[in-house]
Amino acid sequence: MIDLAEDTPTNPFVRLGAQPIALGAAALLLLIAGVTSIAIWRAYTGAAPETDRVVASRQLQVRAAQASEQLVEKTKGLEATQQESIDQLQVVQDQLLTMKRLLASQQADTKRLSEQVANLNEAIDGLRQSFASVRANEADAPAVTPRKPTRHRLHASARKRASG
Q1: C-beta of residue 48 within 8 angstroms of C-beta of residue 42
Q2: Start-end of H helices in the chain
Q3: Closest CA to 16 of 25, 6, 4
Q4: What is the dihedral of CA 140, 141, 143, 144, to 10 degrees?
Q5: 105-140 confidence digits (pLDDT tens)
Q6: Which single residue of 2, 83, 125, 134 has CA 20 to 30 Å from 142?
Q7: pTM of the entire structure?
Q8: Do residues 15 and 9 touch, judged by C-beta distance below 8 A?
Q9: Distance (Å, whole) CA 17 – CA 1
């Protein structure tokens, strides 16, 4: 006996494979239903995702351009500020150099004046010592009493002659 059950396939996919037209028709119906639902959704919302994406990308490009312009302006501002700082630093360095030169000149003048004051002090000390030695010599010499003017005597003798 021949068993008919063995001739029929038990796998349901095998049965569908036997009927490829039905399988293709079902897939086509699913595809049409999906496309129709997408079209209805787009018509209902009134916006297409592609248009939204284009608008969004343009907005991003505009924002990027604005950000780029702002960065360029800020960079130029920083460059100008940096140049001003460099110029100010140069001026300060020049002033510092001038101050150093003036300080060195003043120190040289102070040293020269200090030497002159020291020389003057030595000269004054020398004069004091010579003046002290002159006084000491005068004190050692006998004291000479000054005589009365000879006129007085002459007058007195003239009186005696006149009376005598």
Answers
A1: yes
A2: 12-18, 20-45, 49-140, 150-163
A3: 25
A4: -170
A5: 999 999 999 999 999 999 999 999 998 888 888 877
A6: 125
A7: 0.39
A8: yes
A9: 29
